[in-house]
Amino acid sequence: MSKITIMLQLNGNWDNYDRFRDFEVDAIVVDENASYSILISTIAEQLSIDTSEKIVEIKYMVNDNCPPMEIRNDMGVRVYMENKKENKNLGLYSLCISVRDFNMKLAITNDNTSAGSSGSLKLLDMPSYPAIEEYQSEIITESTQTAIEEGQVYQDKQTVAAAMKYFSVMHKFHFRVKRSSHRSYWLVCVGENCKWHFKTTLINDSAMFKISSFNRQHTCSLMDETFIQHKRTAVAVGSMVIPKYCDPKTVYIPKDIQTDMLSEHGVNLSYMQAWRTKEKALQFLRGNPTDSYNKLPKYFYILKETYPGSVVKLKKTADECFLYAFVALCTSISGWQHCRPVVVIDGTFLKSAYKGIMLTASTMDEAGTILPLAYAVVDSENDASWKWFFEQFKQAYGERPSMCVVSDRNESILKATSIVYPVRSYTLDKFNESMSKIEEVDPRVKSYLYDIGYHIWSRVHATVNRTWTMASNIAESLNVVTKDARELPIFDLLEYMRTLLERWTNEKLLKAKGEGFKHIHTVLDDVKRYIHSPIGELHNIYGVGRYPKGLLKGLTNLQG
């Protein structure tokens, strides 16, 4: 019977994006036909877990597009082993181990004595946590805590860490992390042989941390100059100015940081330190740009589930690196059928860490407002990227008779549209050339066609499809709206576009409902007026083409 080596990830925690973080590593060797109980006992023995008091939860990641899969029984083990046998690399399909106490309050047992018998509730013992109840009313949730005292309870470890960064800025000193785990957080002063220290520990199995030891007295010779010159000043101050950058449209420059820190906290920063502070704040708020790309597979999966009928595509290179992203939400797709068949497309530069180009396609709805149809992020405006964009656009919106594409005449756009939407361009020069050839054959034919009327059969002379869209102003207006958002990492940029489109759609719906009720009341008032008017006032005779002033306008409004 063959053996399989499995890597274990333990003492970690799951983040909001279903990724196991801050874990330690171990490994086991088990038979490929092992049962669930054998797998549990092997893990418990290797990690010294008492299964009589603890519950062992086993999960593993299949791919980035789905949440972690949990192993609960023998079938779960068999599925995992089949995948592991095909991918025996130690780092693939690692088991994420979580350990917790028995905390079930109720268990449901079935009598099974008859088909109609109901379940009965059986009470189980549950360990109580008096510490949690004791401090429930004193739990600190704000990171801007000015008074740090021994015995305080914070809602989680992140709040403790942020509060201490704020505290260090207020008191102009620096600390370093001596120990950090999911159960403890221990800080000491950066000064040599300084006795200042700060310790917090986890309260039982909750997420809350309690300050167990805090010596606030410094025995080092740290001065304000030491704090100002320290390279980690930007990290500490950056966490304090994060709220200033929550709105991408907010303008908060390094000079503003210098002024506010000096007036509010007495900290004198150089311009370079203020600039680093801004960069750190943006990093805290938006995360690592690389991690932003890692969020896309799950984000696109959620978009498909939340907006059924949408077309979202993510294209990668051969080595699994990001290449293109395309989004066309179902709300825009459904609204396209009620718009003029005119698509205005454009590309604009991104200003985030990895640069790139955002391509947009938009139109004008019946209310005369902008309707974004699709948006994409590509590497640059080239033949390949525009061709891919139009292929996805055609999949989402198909083709419409007399559809017109308005652009800035980028050569790549012309090439892409000729491939994806193969149509012929009818020009006056080409028409005159063709008519000259006809005249050479038989002049009577040319005269006959002229008498019929060129506008009847010649596309270049056709009077239809006059859309009044002569420039790409729609795209330029959209670029202005997204100007500040184009500095965001790709995940935040795509989410900004989604919320922008959703907000515009909701505003249009609310406005349409309000206008609808307004017109209904107007029509009802007119009906009531006519009902109660004398018969003679209801019959008026007008000469042909001599309508009273304003009557045509009223008829037009009613018909619209």
Overview of the structural elements:
The protein is an alpha+beta fold. The protein folds into four domains: 3-101, Ubiquitin-like (UB roll); 136-227, no CATH class; 228-286; 291-424 and 459-532, no CATH class. It is 40% helix and 21% strand. It is built from 19 helices and 21 strands. It has helices at 36-47, 74-86, 130-134, 157-171, 224-229, 233-238, 254-265, 271-286, 289-294, 296-306, 330-336, 383-397, 411-420, 428-441, 443-452, 454-457, 473-481, 490-531, 551-559, and strands at 3-10, 13-14, 20-21, 24-31, 54-60, 69-71, 95-101, 106-109, 120-123, 139-140, 153-154, 175-180, 184-189, 197-202, 209-215, 311-316, 322-328, 342-349, 357-364, 370-378, 404-406. Strands 10-11-15-14-13-12 form a six-stranded mixed beta sheet. A six-stranded mixed beta sheet has the order 16-17-20-19-18-21, sandwiched between helices. A five-stranded mixed beta sheet has the order 4-1-7-5-6, covered by helices on one side. Strand 2 and strand 3 form a beta hairpin. The N and C termini lie far apart (79 Å). Residues 342-422 form the MULE transposase domain.
